[in-house]
Amino acid sequence: MADLRTEFAGIKSPNPFWLASAPPTDKAYNVERAFKAGWGGVVWKTLGEEGPPVVNVNGPRYGAIWGADRRLLGLNNIELITDRPLQVNLQEMKQVKMNWPDRALIASIMVPCDEESWKAILPLVEETGADGIELNFGCPHGMSERGMGSAVGQVPEYIEMVVRWCKQYTRMPVLTKLTPNITDIRYPARAAKRGGTDGVSLINTISSIVSVDLDDFSPQPSIAGKGSHGGYCGPAVKPIALNMVAEIARDAETYGLPISGIGGITTWRDAAEFIALGCGTVQVCTAAMTYGFKIVQEMITGLEAWMDEKGHRTLADFQGRAVPNVTDWQYLNLNYIAKAHIDQDACIKCGRCHIACEDTSHQAITAMVDGVRHFEVMEDECVGCNLCVNVCPVENCITMQPLAPGTLDRRTGTPVNPNYANWTTHPNNPMARQAAE
Ligand SMILES: Cc1cc2nc3c(=O)[nH]c(=O)nc-3n(C[C@H](O)[C@H](O)[C@H](O)COP(=O)(O)O)c2cc1C
Ligand code: SF4
Ligand code: SF4
């Protein structure tokens, strides 16, 4: 039986599934039930400094986009950090940690970007018995306009400075939560590492406007006719998160830095992908908000079943296994050739593949043969782009089939070269030509 126990930046949890800092982790009532449902850890809803708590809007704070079946694909929010008093949160955290000693309890923190503020809050958090802290350098709305959240996360020098303070003033492991609202995620990750962070977590939410009401022309969610950008999350952001995780996992400067993966994780498979790209734990928010705490049970049993099937005994057996396979475009093998193939028995003759290929790709799929609707790939035109696979409504009806080395590629009239060759040495590449000369 697969063993899901994790030790991440010195923090132990019975499984890698943590709830991300957000409404599901806002209070003891929630966190207690989350632990009962099986979550391995939680990152408590972000704490602010002592004093009057922040004030949230009193109207809608969420916007969304849905798939055709009304399944939630992307969630947008304009919520701030916790609006409960600091002392109430700290007392509850202490009690929860006492009740659940085997679970990871991480305190997310966001205070003004000055040394005194960080120095003041860290002992209070440490006193709760929390296993670690997560520095919220991610929120893109509300707090960033006050010089916190992503306003810090977008300046690597500030990240390094604050992480250094935290490492100086607490013995707890420090996780640095990064904002995706930046051009190159490697710079903030490197800065966090320079500051001495024990790990990074990403992604926080993406700045977004999800929709505009076409009657009153207000962005959604609308507060008395006005909207502001919010933070986007849920299944729609997973590809962005995976890429950012991979960038950090394969960067020479941050290689080996513990990563807690966040962004759109809804199923065990999503989690396994993040782990394969190097993550030691994963964090979930939108999926829990959409389907409830018990969703973790499917994540646990699904991951265990897959690991058993594949012979992975522990997470370490496959953690990071996909990292060496992430490369830059110029190193892709230009001698690899694949062609689309349509399974005629599975095809429902809808014609989508033909339209897509005909209008926007390479005119490589028939529409009619002998006056009958018939969709077939013409190998001498197919460039192997994969568009038809993605628009076909029937799963596995169209598959990409690699041509074996030596086989004739009927599009180019040349046999498939068995040797790996990439753009860096291609004769059409002016840089390669210059190097050869
Ligand atoms: C309503 C809401 C409130 C959030 N509040 C916080 C917060 O206080 N601190 C924080 O670090 N992240 C916060 N987040 C971001 C989540 O922790 C997480 O990074 C993000 O939602 C991506 O994960 P997901 O796609 O699983 O939702 C919030 C997200 C949502 C939806
Ligand atoms: S792989 Fe691309 S070129 Fe080939 S049939 Fe499909 S859409 Fe057309
Ligand atoms: S899109 Fe798929 S199902 Fe539709 S015609 Fe093409 S192969 Fe057949």
UniProtKB/TrEMBL annotation:
GO cellular component, as recorded: cytoplasm
Biased composition (Polar residues): 414-428
Enzyme nomenclature, EC number: 1.3.1.1
SUPFAM superfamilies in UniProt: 4Fe-4S ferredoxins, FMN-linked oxidoreductases
Keywords: Iron, Iron-sulfur, Metal-binding, Oxidoreductase
Region (Disordered): 409-437
Pfam name, any one: Fer4_21
Subunit and partners: Heterotetramer of 2 PreA and 2 PreT subunits.
Family in the record: Belongs to the dihydropyrimidine dehydrogenase family.
Protein name from the UniProt record: dihydrouracil dehydrogenase (NAD(+))
UniProt source species: Ectorhizobium quercum
